[in-house]
Specification:
Residues 244-262 have a biased composition (Basic and acidic residues). InterPro entries: Peptidase_S1_PA, Peptidase_S1_PA_chymotrypsin. The protein is 18% helix and 45% strand. With 273 residues, it is of the alpha+beta class. The chain has a single domain (6-248), classed as Thrombin, subunit H (Beta Barrel), CATH 2.40.10.120. Strand 13 (184-187) and strand 14 (192-202) form a beta hairpin.
């Protein structure tokens, strides 16, 4: 195994929420032309931040009745300070906002409130090239296991297309444990992110205990699906811009509200008839 490089270690961070903690990975930190500062985004699991998401009813002046809305509490992101490229000697905590989440994908995206650039972001495995990956290739898992500074484990890519709850997962032999959720699985050869640890393998036949030497992770294909569906495509595609995608999300929200309002009006007319 080759020496672990900073390109894989530094993007890893610890995510601390109101109820639980986990890991995260910086996947974007670029200049925002509108603000003059830098926008930094951290990828993590939805179940890591779900305790900071509350759905409540709130009056809508457009629809003239209560609607369900999500209220999002900020999460702390801890970046580690390193000496000798190997020893964690402290942390820097930065507030972040939950800007996207999807319980079905079990993915979430955090945006740091700090406008300074984070000089390290994970390289994403190229979209559409997942068929080039082969079983047995060496992989590296990095995450804040048990709340500790990043723990590094190694293994091999062991299985594709495992369906769990109607979603695809990949399996590796790089051990992970509680706290690794939201971290990173890298392809050792290219140091590119190929997935996000999410589930420790469990033996249903003999014991409900986690089997920590086998770990399912959310594949890079689903990461791209999440970014596409949530309209954060600028993170991996320079043909899109941060502002353009924000405008698209706002337009989509307004269109959905209008559709609901129209249904309410038509429903009222049907009732009168």
């Amino acid at each position: 195994m080759k020496e672990i490089s900073y390109d894989m270690l530094l993007p890893n961070c610890r995510v601390v929420t109101q109820k639980v903690g986990g890991s995260g990975t910086v996947i974007y930190s670029e200049k925002n032309e509108d603000t003059g500062g830098y926008s930094t985004y951290v990828l993590t699991n939805c179940h890591v931040v779900i305790g900071n998401i509350e759905v409540k009813k709130k009056w809508s002046s457009l629809l003239k009745h209560d609607v369900k809305m999500d209220f999002l509490t900020s999460a702390d992101v801890h970046f580690f300070k390193w000496q000798y490229q190997s020893r964690a000697v402290g942390v820097t905590a930065i507030d972040s906002d939950i800007v996207a989440y999807d319980p079905d994908h079990d993915l979430a995206l955090l945006k740091l409130r700090d406008i300074d650039q984070v000089p390290f972001a994970a390289k994403l495995y190229p979209k559409g090239e997942e068929n080039q990956l082969r079983l047995g290739v060496p992989v590296i898992a990095i995450g804040a296991a048990m709340g500790e500074p990043p723990v590094i484990t190694t293994g091999r890519l062991s299985q594709f297309a495992r369906e769990i709850d109607n979603r695809e997962f990949w399996l590796s032999t790089a051990p992970t444990i509680f706290g690794n959720s939201g971290g990173a699985v890298y392809l050792e050869e290219t140091e590119e992110l190929i997935g996000v640890p999410a589930i420790n393998a469990v033996s249903l036949a003999f014991t409900p205990d986690p089997i920590t030497h086998l770990s399912f992770f959310i594949p890079i294909t689903r990461v791209y699906e999440f970014l596409d569906e949530q309209m954060f495509r600028f993170i991996y595609d320079s043909n899109f811009t941060e502002k353009g995608e924000a405008d698209s999300r706002e337009s989509e929200r307004r269109n959905e509200e209008l559709k609901i309002a129209q249904k309410e009006v038509l429903g009222g007319e049907d009732d009168e008839e």
